[in-house]
Amino acid sequence: MTGALGRFLDGDLWYSFRRSRTAMAAALVAFACVFGALFAEFVAPHNPMDLATLELADARLPPAWAAEGSRKYVLGTDDQGRDILSALMYGSRISLFVGVASVLVSLVVGVSLGLLAGFVGGRTDAFIMRLCDVMLSFPPILIALLIYGIGRALFPNAHETLAFAVLITAISLTGWVQYARTVRGSTLVERHKEYVQAARLIGVPTLRIMRRHVLPNVTGPVMVLATIQVASAILIEATLSFLGVGVPPTSPSLGTLIRVGNDLLFSGEWWITVFPGVMLVMIALSVNLLGDWLRDALNPKLR
Amino acid sequence: MKLLPPLLAAALAVSCGLAGAVTLRVANQGDAQSMDPHSLNETLQLTFTGNVYEPLVGRDRKLALQPVLATEWKQTSPTVWRFELRKGVTFHDGTPFSADDVVFSLKRAAGEGSDMQSYTSPFKEVRKVGPLTVEIETLAPFPILPDVLTNVFMMSRKWCEENKAVIPVDRRKGIENTASFKANGTGPFRLKERQPSTRTVLIRNGSYWGKVDGNVDEVIFTPIGSAPTRVAALLSGEIDLIEPVPLQDIERIKASPNLKVSQGPELRTIFLGMDQKRDELLFSSVKGRNPFKDKRVRQAFYQAIDIETIKTRVMRGASLPSALMVGPGIRGFTPEQNRRLPYDVEAAKKLMAEAGYAGGFEVSLNCPNDRYVNDADICQAVAANLARIGVKVNLQTETKVTYFPKILRRDTSFYLLGWTPSTYDAHNALTSLMATPTDKGQGQFNLGSYSNPKVDELTLKIQSETDQAKRNAMIKEAFELHANDIGHIPLHQQSLASAMKKNVDIVQLPDNFMPYKWVTVK
Residues with Cβ < 8 Å from B88, sequence gap 6 or more? Predict the structure, then answer.
């Protein structure tokens, strides 16, 4: 273990990380967000998911520094009396979980299919690409409603767990298309290159060529795409929750908090939407910057 | 290029000429689903088409009955009502209005595809007695017939036949016809332009038979679904009148020097219903029995809800907590009866323990999130309240488009609903919400199948009782029984709010209707 860590610390990646201030700052922010989300139980001053502790009478209090603010709620409270700071931590856990999980699923599906389409070509390619076209013509919301209907018929009593499964499946089912198309494009370029021809000539099995030779060379754009998709997955989650197929409103995610707060913007209760919004921007931006750095660091041509 | 200035001048002249006409630009949360007055029994639909079409009997500003297309009506026998029609009324296309049109319209409203059947179901026969006289015979004595007719609009027989619109538009089945996009009524406004969910334009009917109190010549109606966008449109001056106003924006609008807010109580009562029929709830952790069959559980839920805090925080003061399923303004409402059981968490816990649920249980609560004022927020507050007596509420909120079909299938254990008795009479609430569901339309919206034979019996008697005092006593008794059973958990009557420019005067009605003939722009 120490060997691996030592190797990593001596390696190019760590060197380039230490030289990039942006990457370090982004990593710090991302770490803080993830830490707060993972250890919310220990860090957050309140538990907004425990309905019995909510005080409706404390609803819509401004942040502590405002005149009517209370020290009990540093960033104020939302319309149900939830502490915004705690809701941010618990909410970003849900959002991050849904975002990362759905991106992982769509990444695996999309990259494999894209690779297959690009490398094998012919009818397989045509089939997979037409499938992509078909998927693109359905908005994620429609697919989510469809999956939700099926899920509901199969497991009539499992609402809360089902909600997460539906969300992740729904977002991944439309998300994979982007990966498939990107990877197919890159693969088409790579497969005619000499190193692939060489590998073929010496009799490396097709699967192995795809995995060990082509895949590493097409990951660059995928990385960038994945980081962008985390943010968009979080936003799709908010939309679906509004339609009633996402997470229940009693356990609000970042997206839900932003949507609720959005209705209160004109009335001057800005903190309900601004803080979750800032949090979302921070998560999306830091993950994006890290992805950017990683792409540059892993790209041999830029060294 | 030289042609342009004269053209511009001409255009300006034309637009100035029109500027003399008073235009009212209205934005609403939703759109009327169709221009067919018999296609949907829903407030927005009725109030909008009510500008173009008219009923026999209407309502004035105090919601009292008022002659419209009928000048007088009387009961010639217990089951027969006779209506004398107004002379000299013409439809927008110039055809004179006559008894044939009434017979045709009532038949259309009672027929296949119509959403008005709940009003016409007590009818046995509608017959023409003279050119301007019509008789309606009912199956049983029906004292509130004129009230029921206020939402049934008259169409032209000739026009419907010529336009192949004899059968009503049925949006649920996707059946459309000319009546959905064109209109030919007798009302104070004509339909000029119809673009579903985008823009609908009405213009004043110059040959209207009656007097119009307002001065609006043209109404441009635009649906704007998003509340902040609707408010922004008003603030920027793009729109003259919006409804509803989100509660949180009332202060902001009042603070603006050019705008004002009109608020008033609504007749709608918001309540929670519980499945009391199934032997096991569809969505609950309790297996093998139904906790809602136990009155103590229902009462515990009732007393655990802190309605006053919901009023101050969720509704921002704009609600009237209610103990009854109908509110002030409904015939049969008695103020003395309107006393809620006290909010008492300890008592509720004790009741739960007595019923054998000291540790609480899990149940799903279904709730719309875009139908009533702050509906999803009310449900969240209720969920938090119930958490204190150990009940874990799995809250499921969704848009009305999916919510209503679901709960109307009774695919729910615990739900939130709002109800306005469309006849402004307590009997409507009794027969729709509290009577045991039957296949004849009783208890159609009693989605938890609350059932008390005594209430059913009284409901039937109330329908045909003509003596007002006796009738009120029976209504009171039925409400008493329902309240003692905790058949539902009434929450409150919400307030209505619309906002407009300072120079616009409207009449705020508690039934959420907004006739443009009463709007004045100074």
Answer: B96, B209
Whether cis (ω within 30° of 0) applies to the bond prior to B96 is no
Q: At what angle do helices A159-190 and A84-120 cross, to 10 degrees?
A: 40
Angle between helix A159-190 and A122-136 (nearest 10): 140
ipTM, interface predicted TM-score of the complex:
0.76
Report the distance separating Cα B98 and Cα B101, nearest Å: 6
Beta strand ranges found along B78-213 (DSSP E): 80-85, 123-130, 133-138, 189-195, 199-204
Interface test with B, best of A50, A56, A80, A157 (most B CBs within 10 A): A56
Mark yes or no for CB contact A262/B248 under 8 Å: no
Provide the whole-model pTM. Answer: 0.81
In angstroms, the separation between the Cα of residue A175 and the nearest Cα of chain B is: 24
Query: Which chain B residues contact residue A264 at CB under 8 A?
Result: 248
Q: Tens digits of per-residue pLDDT, B274-301? A: 999 999 999 899 999 999 999 999 999 9
Nearest CA-CA distance, residue B86 and chain A, Å: 48
Of A156, A245, A250, the CB nearest to B380: A250
The string of pLDDT tens digits covering residues B397-409 is: 888 877 888 888 8
> Per the CB < 8 Å rule, is B387 touching A264?
no
Binned at pLDDT 50, 70 and 90, residue B434 comes out as very high
* B388 to A242: CB separation less than 8 angstroms, yes or no: no
Q: Is A251 part of the contact surface with chain B (CB cutoff 8 Å)?
A: no
Phi, psi of B145 (to 5 degrees): -50, -45
Regarding beta strands B362-368 and B392-398, do their DSSP bridges make them parallel or antiparallel, or are they unpaired? parallel
Nearest to B313 among A51, A57, A243 (CB): A57
pLDDT digits (tens, 9 = 90+) for A107-166: 999 999 999 999 988 999 999 999 999 988 888 778 877 887 787 677 766 666 777 887
Q: Report yes or no: A164 and A253 within 8 Å, Cβ to Cβ.
A: no
